[in-house]
Amino acid sequence: MNEVLKALIERRSVKKYKDTPVPKELLERIAEAGTYAPSGMNKQASVILVVTDKEKRDWLSKINAQVRGVDTDPFYGAPAVLVVLYDKSVHTGIYDGSLVMQNLMLAAHSLGLGACWIHRAKETFETNEGKAFLRELGIEGDYEGVGNCIVGYADGEYPVLKPRKENYVYYVD
Hints:
Order of helices and strands: HHEHEHEHHE
Largest sheet: 4 strands, antiparallel
CATH superfamily: NADH Oxidase
Mean pLDDT: 97
CATH architecture: 3-Layer(aba) Sandwich
Structural class: alpha+beta
Strand content: 15-25%
Strand order of the largest sheet: 1-2-4-3
Low-confidence stretches: none
Shape: globular
CATH class: Alpha Beta
CATH topology: NADH Oxidase
Distance between the termini: 26 Å
């Protein structure tokens, strides 16, 4: 089977991670793959934050957990979080950012890493703390969170394929 199709079919959301750090070179390759996602009119409205600093990663986890209303780690122990945001002035930004997220997850899978899309990036970066975090990084403008792509080495068995629903695809010949 074609390697791209194989990755698309075999990738799963991993929800338990080892605390082993992901080498920077792999995170760079994953982030680079994200930058090649399609974007409306090639505006490239997304930005990717690669967070491996434990204190900042834990801060993101804490805000995310508060938004969700839980006191557990919504990042499932993953040591790296790639946050995707988009420039709200670009009308296709949310879609473009979603494509970036898909590229990140597929790239992680292709490199033997687990990944999972975790929501609530929007709410995290709507907070004053989230906006201040972006300013600290020198990110100016009106950005909205699309998602958090957690990345790391899977702890345990890789999730199994679940059957696809009936009537998923309709052909109009």
